[in-house]
Amino acid sequence: MTRVLNLLEADPRPRHPEKAHRPDNPIARKPAWIRAKAPGSPGYAATHALVRQHKLTTVCEEARCPNIGECWEKKHATFMIMGEICTRACAFCNVATGLPGALDAGEPARVGDATGKLGLSHVVVTSVDRDDLADGGAAHFAAVIRAIRAAAPATTIEVLTPDFLRKQGALEIVIEARPDVFNHNLETVPGKYLTVRPGARYFHSLRLLQRAKELDSTLFTKSGIMVGLGETRNEVLQVMDDLRSAQVDFLTIGQYLQPSPKHHAVEDFVTPAEFEAYAAVGAAKGFLLVSSSPLTRSSHHAGEDFTRLKAARMAAATKS
């Protein structure tokens, strides 16, 4: 029998080759309280067209964010720079894993132009992990920040960066470019790192957040975790204490949703009441802002949250 290979089709390589050998984890049915707006509005279509026109990547699409319909309808998109391929293989993440290509020198200008055309008052820029680069992509982050400042001077900028593990001086490059918010997600409790985030180190990530504040005390710092991965309530509360020790201002907590049967299973769907309780505890521990709900994600409502962050800091300064 002769087999014909179709070499004109898209690359059949699996999105997550490192997970291919793992047994399937059945995807649990979502409870009634997890419902997101389906994409398809005129605003969504306009944002989609602009992203394609500028040949940009968004974490909204790559990570299969459940809030994409709501955010893109409002012309809010989180730009993901430095390509679509990540050098890490986290058990929760839908971003493709592999060897990335070279950086696109024209990307910073395109991000800046798209930010201006979307009319964003606040923009979020994130990236894949680029362990293959000497600086982890820090200089590219800085170039994107500068390009946004040039194209949209009134826009405030939030960066959600990788951990820059073993990249001496990388954080300093990003902070020197003067973003308004520095975000780095811890993602989960330390006891889950080996299975959920094996390429990272909990205390390194914590120190990264602390160091960012040391480099610029006026900077807002932010971090987020997912729940539903098998963590306990006490472990979540300990993460809160660790983040407050690092002077982190803003905490986000959201429900982990399993992207595919090859990803980490959802161990528990946390109820809205439990999320509200986490928000109350976080406020009592001294965070300027806590966003805690099933559909909370790092960049969800980021612009509105930045306004609330500034107001909370001013109120705290007035009290002191």
- Tally of separate helices: 11
Low-confidence stretches: 1-10
Order of helices and strands: HHHEEEHEHEHEHHEHEHEH
Q: What proportion of the residues is helical, as a percent range?
A: 25-40%
Strand share of the residues?
Answer: 5-15%
Give the strand order of the largest sheet, numbering strands 1, 2, ... along the chain: 1-4-5-6-7-8-9
Q: Give the biggest sheet.
A: 7 strands, parallel
Described by the principal axes of the CA atoms, the overall outline is globular
Mean pLDDT reading: 88
What structural category do the secondary elements indicate?
alpha/beta
Distance from first to last alpha carbon: 81 Å
Characterization of the model:
The chain is α/β, with parallel strands linked by helices. The chain is 37% helix and 12% strand. The strands form two sheets. A seven-stranded parallel beta sheet has the order 1-4-5-6-7-8-9, sandwiched between helices. The protein has a two-stranded parallel ribbon with strand order 2-3. Helix 6 links the parallel strand 5 (156-160) and strand 6. Helix 4 packs parallel to helix 5 and helix 5 packs parallel to helix 6. The longest helix has 18 residues, at 302-319. The N and C termini lie far apart (81 Å). The relative contact order is 0.13. Residues 1-10 have low confidence and may be disordered.
